[in-house]
Amino acid sequence: MASLKEVAEKAGVSVATVSRVLNDRRYINSETRLKVEKAIKQLNYRPNRVAQRLRLKDGQRKLIGLLVPDIQNPFYVDVIRGVEETAYARDHAVFVGNFAQDEGKEKMYLDIMKSESIDGLIVAPSHEKDSEVTNLVNSGLPIVCVDRGLSEVDVDVVLVDNRKGAFDAVEYLIQKGYKRIAYIGGLPQIPTTMQRKEGYEDALRKYGLPIDTDLICFGDSKHESGKKLTAELLNLPNPPQALFTGNNLITLGALETIHNRKLRIPQDIAIVGFDDMYWSISLNPPLTAVRQPGFEIGKRAAEMLFQKVKEPDRPPVKLMLKTELIKRESC
Amino acid sequence: MASLKEVAEKAGVSVATVSRVLNDRRYINSETRLKVEKAIKQLNYRPNRVAQRLRLKDGQRKLIGLLVPDIQNPFYVDVIRGVEETAYARDHAVFVGNFAQDEGKEKMYLDIMKSESIDGLIVAPSHEKDSEVTNLVNSGLPIVCVDRGLSEVDVDVVLVDNRKGAFDAVEYLIQKGYKRIAYIGGLPQIPTTMQRKEGYEDALRKYGLPIDTDLICFGDSKHESGKKLTAELLNLPNPPQALFTGNNLITLGALETIHNRKLRIPQDIAIVGFDDMYWSISLNPPLTAVRQPGFEIGKRAAEMLFQKVKEPDRPPVKLMLKTELIKRESC
DNA sequence: ATGAAAGCGCTAACAG
DNA sequence: CTGTTAGCGCTTTCAT
Known about the structure:
Oligomer: homodimer
Structural class of chain A: alpha/beta
Radius of gyration of chain A: 25 Å
Strand content of chain A: 15-25%
Strand order of the largest sheet of chain A: 2-1-3-4-5-11
Shape of chain A: elongated
Number of helices of chain A: 12
Order of helices and strands of chain A: HHHHEHEHEHEEHEHEHEHEEHEE
Distance between the termini of chain A: 60 Å
Helix content of chain A: 40-55%
Largest sheet of chain A: 6 strands, parallel
């Protein structure tokens, strides 16, 4: 890799001049510029981003971090894509970390992000009191939370109305005539898990249905727990008629158990899931689901982050996007 | 963020000493070490990875790059996880880039990787003659290819026996009695697309079935093209009885078209796909598919890369893993 | 309009 | 065993 110095030598100017033609487009004699540009081309010079970041100040490093809880979850894949596209449009690179729902790994990634001199961070914190992220916000690093907020500090956040989304799903189930409806949540410490539970209960309450704690259960937001909890629910003496599953991986796990038992959907058991996937129509049967705009969330979060970087003192904003109930055939 | 200098001041030693207790565990007076460790703890010091990378030589920077063609494809998500887990076990960070099947974006990412001073790169090149990646291999950067190799240079590569995997799938279809079998491939310039086509033709030939070019088509390896090409195939005057789809996104697209037309699988049209997903059992109907071990591919590639970094002159090796045909109900 | 030089935070000779 | 110092590649005053 050619360095600035080599370019300078080849062009017969100082490194400062080369740096100027690269960044600071004023005050350059046009002949000098030509010479430099020629040398750059000949050597196929590319600035060393590491040296650049070491030297540059906050907000000019062209690198942001993105920390997601589970890359196997297609929702976060959409968020990642939304962030990346927006960042690249602004010539920023994105350092993505997947902490796989492991708080230890989350901390490790946070350490890496800090020491990689990023301009800002987009993160879906493990839980609302996440002290590592809270400290980082307090340290002044521009941060935007996605999917979940933080309770101990005022921070920018982009998410959906989980309570409303869940309410809509369960209300639809009730309107379809189902009475015993179970909720299979993810990790209880994740805010969305509880918000969706609230929405579930809101709907039950509105229609005067009892809230039966036997029908409310929590797992770890992954496929396996969806599979296992569905089995437990179906083993109940008085099993539910319908399932409201708390995220897409849980939904997939639930479907697996139902299919293994040769139960018919929705005749034997109905299901509506939180999180739609573009291939939900190809599931057996086509899934009724609450769609959240993952790509849009990522995009908005990135835009918000860039704004925050530019104007660090503007007060944090909360952006709540809408969910949409996609009606298909699973209930 | 505290710096080495601040730690040194607090501990009353030189920066060199602090650096030594951090890296170079020999030759340190135990009292000195204690003082330094205390200061490190008090200041909550973390080394600045950017400064470290700028200073360090090849192979010691604890950062590798990973460039994948499509993060929306669950296969690559598995590869990413395999690479990450292996890298983290060795205390390396992974810079992941998703070029979304866009050669321009691939080049951009390659530039970023180069200028981020990585120790090595794992990449699934756009095509076999990918000159950017080829040049990078020739430049001496340790590189391991996954999923696809390079024809113009001898390089390490981890992939599966695509031809055999495709052969097994199509042979199974033939044994089930299907005679008019179509192949829906991805981008024709991707090596796996053509290898899978070879396997498809091998099977047809072995059983004396004609190779009908009307039944062989290519798209762009994404959901939409699977959807569209399936529609075209079904519109043929003499449509196929079975589909062999070239990757998981194409499969999902094909299923969508089939379901939209209210066709029954496998009675009206059978399907077997390349790439299994853990939720393939929940598709309508449970999908018969060729499984490739994505996680394992990522893991092996990372191990191979670390070896290459340690011993840059060892001759490149090709590792070919096996596929497995998972028989379910779609044919 | 251009160059010299400081310095970002760190590691690794080299000297003692 | 420890300190001093050069230098990784870059940007940015400060001079000129």
